[in-house]
Structure to design on (688 residues):
């Protein structure tokens, strides 16, 4: 019999019952809640007079529409200028209080983007099932956890039953082998993967990232890769447990201690795909072939290397694809075969659950150090992923490097990643963004998003247009 | 949840691939703490010429006459014809809420994004996967014939054209059962209370660290 994949093992360890129709009840170890997708779930619980199955399995933090300026934050809840945002944040506070759920409130130093906060606290651990009403929950798979986004009805279902009705997905493995060239980051790797397999390439599959280039990444880098599994259509992205994974949790507030730590580590070491495991689909990339990536269109699969050009729709045989290239170029205000380096930028956004951890800020600061943001740039934002990331960055003096270069240094939250708070693009503006989605209007109505790594975003801020970070001296 | 048994309705063709959830319901409308009120903002950026804000009276906003759902012949449509990877992007359940509130009961496409597909079932909205050739044929027929309708029968798992041509589709048994009967998932799961409790006890004995207290 063939061996098991990591996904097979995690699934088996959490399957409560398999129903006759092929669906299963999957036990959920951790649910993370935020203000946007939870209010209707709590409302549902109240209406049905149900209590949470295990309140302690949940943690919450507001992130999507908290303001990120010092002034608004300092004033607390009452100072959130947008009335509807304030009501959402306040509703989360009230719900957590009523149902006995631990919340890192807006100005708690541990507050931040759900996918940064979970691992940081050890609320996400290897071998867990982790869900959140947010599609980028795939991020937590970087630790050998089974993690994916769910809808609000499912948030309510997990609150009430500690289970999810689920159907087992297929197994897919993407291997990135070889040595990562200098100037190429986890973000470039995942953008290159999405460029190769497409935004629907992983539909219906749990995606394991493997290979020597993935092993070489830090935990932060692996989180960046898993974060964007959903942009390849896969709800689940995972990396097997290794010594780096284990070291990451040592001393985290919610990680096991003492004898439990030893038992946990022994278990965690089994969380790898067996050598003879069978995958339904396998894709391989060579790390040496990957260059810094820039998205040119309105879907994350519309990416190209920084030294490349936008595509020529006339060369596309499929009429549906040709039409979508034409529509994307039109929306983005770009010409066919236009060099990426000629794209002038208006705003820069360094942040989001993809790239707002300490390593990302260090990479951007290394480029910004001693340089100045181009005068043509209207705004360059750096938004740390959590209060703890912010404190750490300030301890290292990164905030000062950014401020000296002309960047704004903000309070933690999702910010311009989806522009639910006041940080957003004006129609027609081009933004070099370290976030994960370049859909039409994502960062503000009519806004034009280019997805890049933190180092590439910082380099673009300095030059005013895209440049190859490998050519910076 | 509204049960879905059979439905016959006017079809509207949305001829774009990869329609994402930001398009279906832009994020400024996610600030609501309610489950309702999203219908008027479905496809907001394509549907109106101005930029939509929550709480507006949408009946007074300028309509984009080029957008297919604004065409007179598609008013009252309840079956949406779409292209591949419909509903990609975020997990927001606001997307199926908006589609259902607008009046759609079924969406036919060659493929759907996983989370959207799953969310739809929980809201009485039936996503139907048909082969690309079948979807192409439906697009052609729908565009050529004003007042084009299709009939969906969930129990029989069929989509039937006015000319009698029938397509069958797959749907998993559990989802079908829930949708046919309008059943609440949570109530059903809680019938397995004892099994969950027993699993939980075993799980805790094996990995006590998963149950560490927060606070
Ligand atoms: S940072 Fe962006 S992608 Fe991540 S959780 Fe927030 S809004 Fe979603």
């Amino acid at each position: 019999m063939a061996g098991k994949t990591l996904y097979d093992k995690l699934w088996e360890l959490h399957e409560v019952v398999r129903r006759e129709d092929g669906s299963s009840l999957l036990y959920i170890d951790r649910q993370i809640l935020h203000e946007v997708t939870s209010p209707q779930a709590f409302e549902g619980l109240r209406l049905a007079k149900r209590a949470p199955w295990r309140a302690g399995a949940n943690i919450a933090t507001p992130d999507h529409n908290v303001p990120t300026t010092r002034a608004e934050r300092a004033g607390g809840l009452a100072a959130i200028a947008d009335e509807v945002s304030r009501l959402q944040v306040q509703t989360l506070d009230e719900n957590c209080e009523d149902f006995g759920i631990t919340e890192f409130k807006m100005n708690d130093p541990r507050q931040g983007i759900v996918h940064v906060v979970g691992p940081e606290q050890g609320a996400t651990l290897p071998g867990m099932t982790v869900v959140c009403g947010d599609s980028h929950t795939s991020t937590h798979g970087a630790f050998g956890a089974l993690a994916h986004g769910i809808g609000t009805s499912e948030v309510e279902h997990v609150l009430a039953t500690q289970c999810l009705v689920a159907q087992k997905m297929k197994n897919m493995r993407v291997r990135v082998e070889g040595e990562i060239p200098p100037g190429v980051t986890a973000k470039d790797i995942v953008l290159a993967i999405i460029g190769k397999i497409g935004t629907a390439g992983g539909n219906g599959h749990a995606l394991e990232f493997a290979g020597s280039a993935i092993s070489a990444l830090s935990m932060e880098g692996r989180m960046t890769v898993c974060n964007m599994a959903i942009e390849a259509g896969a709800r689940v992205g995972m990396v097997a447990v290794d010594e780096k994974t284990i070291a990451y949790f040592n001393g985290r507030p919610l990680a096991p201690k003492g004898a439990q730590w030893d038992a946990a580590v022994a278990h965690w070491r089994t969380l790898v795909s067996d050598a003879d495991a069978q995958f339904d689909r396998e894709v391989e990339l060579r790390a040496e072939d990957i260059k810094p990536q820039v998205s040119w269109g309105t879907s994350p699969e519309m990416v190209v290397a920084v030294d490349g050009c936008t595509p020529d729709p006339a060369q596309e045989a499929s009429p549906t694809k040709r039409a979508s290239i034409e529509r994307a170029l039109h929306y983005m205000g770009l010409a066919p075969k236009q060099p990426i380096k000629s794209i002038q930028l208006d705003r820069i956004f360094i942040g989001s659950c993809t790239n707002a951890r300490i390593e990302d800020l260090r990479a951007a600061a290394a480029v910004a150090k001693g340089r100045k943001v181009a005068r043509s740039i209207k705004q360059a934002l750096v938004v740390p992923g959590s209060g703890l990331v912010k404190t750490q960055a300030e301890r290292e003096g990164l905030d000062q490097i950014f401020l000296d270069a002309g960047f704004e240094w903000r309070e933690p939250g999702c910010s311009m990643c989806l522009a639910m708070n006041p940080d957003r693009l004006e129609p027609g503006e081009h933004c070099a963004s370290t976030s994960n989605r370049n859909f039409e209007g994502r960062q503000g109505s009519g806004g034009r998003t280019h997805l890049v790594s933190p180092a590439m975003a910082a380099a673009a801020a300095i030059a005013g247009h895209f440049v190859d970070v490998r050519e910076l001296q | 949840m509204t049960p879905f048994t059979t439905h016959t309705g006017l079809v509207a063709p949305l001829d774009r691939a990869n329609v994402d959830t930001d398009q279906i319901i832009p994020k400024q409308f996610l600030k609501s703490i309610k489950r309702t009120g999203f219908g008027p903002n479905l496809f907001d950026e394509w549907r109106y010429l101005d930029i939509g804000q929550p709480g507006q009276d949408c009946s007074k906003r300028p309509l984009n006459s080029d957008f297919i759902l604004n065409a007179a012949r598609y008013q009252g449509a309840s079956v949406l014809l779409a292209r591949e990877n419909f509903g990609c992007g975020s997990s927001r359940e606001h997307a199926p809420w908006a589609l259902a509130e607008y009046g759609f009961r079924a969406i036919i496409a060659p493929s759907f994004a996983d989370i959207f597909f799953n969310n739809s079932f929980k809201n009485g909205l039936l996503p139907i996967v048909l082969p690309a050739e079948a979807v192409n044929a439906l697009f052609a027929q729908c565009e050529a014939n004003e007042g084009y309708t299709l009939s969906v029968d969930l129990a029989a798992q069929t989509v039937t054209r006015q000319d009698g041509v029938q397509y069958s589709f797959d749907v998993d048994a559990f989802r079908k059962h829930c949708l046919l009967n309008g059943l609440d998932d949570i109530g059903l799961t809680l019938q397995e209370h004892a099994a969950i409790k027993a699993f939980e006890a075993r799980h805790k004995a094996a990995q006590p660290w998963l149950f560490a207290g927060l606070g």
Observations:
- Strands of chain B lie at 6-13, 79-81, 106-109, 126-129, 149-153, 158-161, 166-168.
